[in-house]
Design a protein that fits this description.
By secondary structure, this protein is of the alpha/beta class. Helices cover 46% and strands 9% of the residues.
């Protein structure tokens, strides 16, 4: 009691002298959840986040369990071979997620563009083709069908659509049209639709494959237009979304064409000039960059498979998409791991990509 009175007296005296100061302990900012997850991952787990794969079957099986646990793949793309009904597909996705037991949720992706590029048509209502939507000239139609796609895909456990197509002038009904302004408006409306449903989406195929002379599933071709034409036409829709939307809510898929004005040697999906110089530095895109399927003829016929993932990362990409062959998926993963261990790719560079991936996956939680 005596000690208390002494302290009280000192406080009163100091108050009278104007010398009382409020002592406040340093308050540390809360830990960044992205950094916390990143720091909890092994190198092998980080690299797994950078590979998205296709699987076989309509229910969980030993091959899928082995892949997820051995290689830590961070995403799965579904095809018709995986889909029988709403209930089956949802259970399949849930079972894969549980078997993966990863530190971050899996991406479950699909190509649900509408028209001829739509999955599960026997039990899911497909949207019209993007060409049909573009012909209406009504952006609300594009937004409506994006909301529709998000709704049906959520019902089967999918959380990422590889759409909308942002190419200008595609010849196979997959583009909204031939005019860059119209395509940009339609893609913007679709983006708004997906975002209104808190659903992740993808712009493809950067920097635009509308002028492709050959199907990239079969072989590579070159676009010979000048940089000025590419900027004004093909790149225009991508730039509009990059500059007006949260970059963490959508991916950009880079195609396998060559663009002479950008990089006459490498396909876009392996080009530092395209992915880093143009997409990152010039356009300021800060989100996730994914390749088109690395098993397409345009890429696998011209580049050694073990080097594909390594080149993609060195060029500035984040996720290698390998859709069909289990051996190819493992080769891409193991090649990236080996490149890091021998110092060709730094772990700091891996961390840059995984941060972007985890930031996008934060929208799934």
């Amino acid at each position: 009691m005596r000690k208390f009175l002494i302290l009280l007296f000192v406080a009163i005296i100091c108050a009278g002298c104007g010398e009382v100061r409020e002592v406040q302990a340093d308050v540390l900012p809360p830990p960044d959840p992205i950094e916390t997850k990143l720091n909890a991952m092994t190198l092998e787990e980080k690299i797994g986040q950078m590979v998205m794969v296709g699987v076989y079957g309509t229910e969980l099986n030993d091959d899928i369990i082995f892949s997820l646990n051995q290689f830590h793949f961070g995403g799965v793309i579904f095809y018709d071979r995986n889909l029988e009904s709403v209930a089956q597909a949802k259970k399949f996705a849930d079972d894969i997620e549980a078997a993966a037991n990863q530190k971050a949720p899996l991406f479950f992706a699909i190509d649900e563009e509408g028209g001829r590029v739509a999955r599960g048509k026997n039990f899911l209502e497909a949207a019209p083709s993007q060409e049909e939507i573009g012909l209406t000239g009504d952006v609300e139609v594009a937004k409506y069908w994006a909301v529709h796609n998000a709704t049906i895909l959520k019902s089967i456990g999918v959380n990422l659509n590889f759409a909308p197509v942002a190419d200008v002038g595609s010849k196979d009904t997959r583009s909204f049209g031939d005019a860059p302004q119209l395509v940009a408006q339609m893609v913007d409306a679709a983006a708004q639709g997906y975002e209104s449903e808190n659903f992740l989406y993808t712009l493809k195929h950067f920097p635009g494959i509308g002028k492709s002379k050959i199907d990239p599933h079969k072989e590579i071709s070159s676009v010979e237009d000048s940089k000025e034409i590419l900027d004004a036409v093909d790149i225009f829709p991508f730039k509009k979304i990059i500059t007006t939307h949260d970059n963490s809510k959508f991916m950009i898929m880079v195609g396998h064409l060559r663009y002479d004005a950008l990089d006459p040697v490498n396909s876009a999906s392996l080009s530092p000039a395209v992915m880093t110089g143009l997409l990152r530095n010039e356009l300021g895109y800060s989100g996730v960059v994914i390749t088109d399927d690395l098993e397409m003829g345009a890429i696998k016929n011209n580049t050694d498979l073990p080097s594909l993932g390594v080149q993609m990362i060195l060029a500035g990409g984040d996720i290698a998409l390998v859709c069909h062959n289990y051996d190819s998926q493992q080769i891409v993963y193991n090649s990236i791991l080996a490149a890091v261990k021998r110092g060709e790719i730094s772990e700091q560079r891996i961390d840059e990509s995984v941060r972007r991936i985890l930031k996008m996956k934060a929208h799934l939680q």
